[in-house]
Amino acid sequence: MKPHPYLRAYMAGALAPTVFVMLVVCGYAFIRYGLHLPFAIEKGIIFPVAFVPNLYGIWNVIYLKLHQRHWLSLGVHGALLPIVIGPCGLAVATWVGLLRCQAGALIYFDTFRVPYALVGVAFLCGLIAYYLVWKYVVGFLNAVVGIA
Questions:
Q1: Are 79 and 131 in contact, with CB atoms under 8 Å apart?
Q2: Are 8 and 147 in contact (CB under 8 A)?
Q3: What is the pLDDT of residues 134-143, one digit of tens each?
Q4: Where are the beta strands (DSSP E) in 14-115?
Q5: What count of Cα atoms within 13 Å lies in the side-chain half-sphere of residue 72?
Q6: CB burial class (10 A; 0-12, 13-18, 19+) of residue 111?
Q7: What secondary structure, in 3-state letters, does 52-70 show?
Q8: DSSP type of residue 147
Q9: Which end of the chain is more exposed for a tag (fewer CB within 10 A), N or C?
Q10: What does the pLDDT look like over 37-96, one tens digit per residue?
Q11: Dihedrals φ, ψ of 46, to 5°?
Q12: Adjacent-strand bridge partners of 107
């Protein structure tokens, strides 16, 4: 299966976050509407639903193109993605009023105060999680579509 390797790379990359976001949205709908709990995150879910799966697909296409010339493991390439997603997510959250930056902490939904130290630890955990997802899940999907 040789034709359209970039299309196959895009689809393989976009599958993992699409399935994950689908599960999160289904869980949210069950909590919000099935259990009637006041858990309103509608504004905060739009960015991940619309942007992240597409960016995963594009990032996998970039990996396929770069892999022809440079040797960088898929896991390391995937671990670089939060460096793109993080600032974009912060910018969108600030722009739509979900997030405020104050001295020493981020204020999320005007309710949660998250210290910058915790943001840093969460970012490092995100790098590790992205490394593992890209190495094992996206790597497996790349092998399935024949581009690994």
A1: yes
A2: yes
A3: 999 999 999 9
A4: 99-102, 105-108, 112-115
A5: 18
A6: exposed
A7: HHHHHHHHHHHHHHHHCCC
A8: -
A9: N
A10: 776 677 677 777 888 899 999 999 999 988 878 788 999 999 999 999 889 888 888 888
A11: -65, -45
A12: 100, 113
